[in-house]
Amino acid sequence: MIYQSLGEMGKYELFMVILLMDIIVSGWRFDGGGGYGLVDGLRMDYYYMMNCPFAEGIVKNAVNRHLQADPTLAAALIRMHFHDCFVEGCDASVLIDSTKGNTAEKDSPANLSLRGYEIIDEIKEELENRCPGVVSCADILAMAARDAVFFAGGPVYDIPKGRKDGRRSRIEDTINLPPPTLNSSELIRLFGQHGFTAQDMVALSGAHTLGVARCSSFKHRLSNFDSTHDVDPTLDAQFAKTLSKRCSDNSEQAFDTTKNTFDNDYYNALQRKTGVLFSDQTLYNNPRTRGIVNAYAFNQAMFFLDFQQAMIKMGLLDVKEGSNGEVRANCRIIN
Ligand code: HEM
Ligand SMILES: *[C@@H]1O[C@H](CO)[C@@H](O)[C@H](O)[C@H]1NC(C)=O
Ligand SMILES: *[C@@H]1O[C@H](CO)[C@@H](O)[C@H](O)[C@H]1NC(C)=O
């Protein structure tokens, strides 16, 4: 890892250096011409243009502070951005609270264990004090996820900003989130509907290098799996016992051996048949995706590069601009 070899330089300072280099090398404008699938109006320098140059730093500092207190929150922030983008686009719909007349996305069973809402609220409050009405909740979420990847040891990358917040959040829309029972072909198809390649999908699944799952997400693998198997045959026998234990004492199972470190160990776990979710292990079992898993297990730099590109792409899903959205004053409530 070249970044880590820079030794005593703090991650924050390093980020500023890279940001500056980025500005010098590529200029300010994200003009959408460069192959991301493009959204006019989003720009790398959006908050400079909007006279709120502190926006990035405020988000980064807050994420750093929270992760130092609780490193497991990196997983929470990254997952929240994913759930936001796959439902109604990256428009912070995942942050909206239910009201009397509307049950919001966050109260769907698919939200299972989403955490970290308070971090976003805190950042929003600080930003509203500094530059009221300028920084959208959707951008805060996208920047926070990006910073979480970085502070957990993953790649550093810049993202275009300028998303607007949506005005809809309905429990029924969470049907667009992939359940952990999908096989590799189904995942390829579902992610393909959002414009992702199979390689993007395998790279994005690598977010499971961080965090944990609960029994409810994998118990279907442990009994009555299918008509011919009681236990999922793609699951290592010893690991099946570990998972059963998690179910009996209701504890969480980490996806890989380094749950707070962003690395490629998740792919090594798949090679060992110790993928936690069926949807994880299937990436290794299916010949269409096995080669990608092997490549990422072998070459962390390749995983990092593909992951950051796929995250930038994910962050552009059905982005709202102009009057199609708003900048919420409170991320939990539509203006
Ligand atoms: C490929 C399809 C995916 C499926 C089926 C899936 C499913 C799941 C499930 C079932 C959990 C565990 C929830 C629980 O038991 O509490 C989980 C956790 C997680 N997912 Fe995914 N996921 C997918 C893709 C992604 C993507 C694309 C990202 C982000 C880019 C992501 C980030 C995470 C993270 C970080 C966690 C851990 C959360 C924590 O520890 O708080 N997942 N996912
Ligand atoms: C997730 O949804 C459940 C209902 O299925 C709800 O009880 C829970 O509070 C929600 N979790 C969060 C963090 O909003
Ligand atoms: C994946 O699931 C679909 C639908 O259940 C099934 O038709 C297909 O055969 C499965 N693919 C593999 C490789 O198991």
UniProtKB/TrEMBL annotation:
Keywords: Calcium, Disulfide bond, Glycoprotein, Heme, Hydrogen peroxide, Iron, Metal-binding, Oxidoreductase, Peroxidase, Secreted. It is an enzyme of class 1 (oxidoreductase). PANTHER family: PEROXIDASE (PTHR31517:SF84), PTHR31517. Residues 41-335 form the Plant heme peroxidase family profile domain. One of its GO terms (molecular function) is peroxidase activity. Belongs to the peroxidase family. Classical plant (class III) peroxidase subfamily. Belongs to the peroxidase family. Ascorbate peroxidase subfamily. Gene3D superfamilies: 1.10.520.10, Peroxidase, domain 2. The gene is PER47. It holds the Pfam family peroxidase. It comes from Datura stramonium. Its cofactor is heme b; Ca(2+). Binds 1 heme b (iron(II)-protoporphyrin IX) group per subunit. PROSITE patterns: PEROXIDASE_1 (PS00435), PEROXIDASE_2 (PS00436), PEROXIDASE_4 (PS50873). Its EC number is 1.11.1.7. This is Peroxidase.
